[in-house]
Amino acid sequence: MTESNNTQGDFAMPEINFSTFILSLNSSALVHLGIQTDPTSGSTSENLLLAKQTIDILAMLDEKTKGNLAEDEKRLLTHVLYELRILYVKQKEKK
């Protein structure tokens, strides 16, 4: 990818790798949990169905990549899954 394809104005997109992909899914789940503001709309709303789907995607990635990740990638995925699952349960209990 060239420099011009990886920037928009003064904003540079992060390098695309497994860790940034996991962090992107994490951000999406946080938005769906209503914990993080949606960057497009600027509002906060909760959609637990979409949050669960995103968490399930991360769990599938965890299962399918067993033995194929660098140690830091595995730690990141494990941590993200743990935190999102805790937050999901807390949001579910509020209902």
How would you describe this structure in keywords?
two-stranded antiparallel ribbon; 2 strands; 95 residues; mainly alpha; 59% helix
Count of DSSP strands: 2
Order of H and E elements = EEHHH
Ends distance:
45 Å
Domain tally: 1
Unreliable parts = none
User: Which radius of gyration do the C-alpha atoms yield?
Assistant: 15 Å
Helices, strands, pairings?
Layout: E1 7-8, E2 11-12, H1 18-32, H2 48-64, H3 71-94
Antiparallel strand pairs: 1-2
Helix pairs in contact: 1-2, 1-3, 2-3
Description:
The protein is mostly helical and 95 residues long. It has one domain. It is 59% helix and 4% strand. The chain has a two-stranded antiparallel ribbon. β1 and β2 (11-12) form a beta hairpin. α1 runs antiparallel to α2 (48-64), α1 runs parallel beside α3 (71-94) and α2 (48-64) packs antiparallel against α3 (71-94). The longest helix has 24 residues, at 71-94. It is flat and about 40 Å long. The mean pLDDT is 92.
Question: Briefly, what is this?
Answer:
The protein has 95 residues and is mainly alpha-helical. The chain is built from 3 helices and 2 strands; from the N terminus they run ββααα.
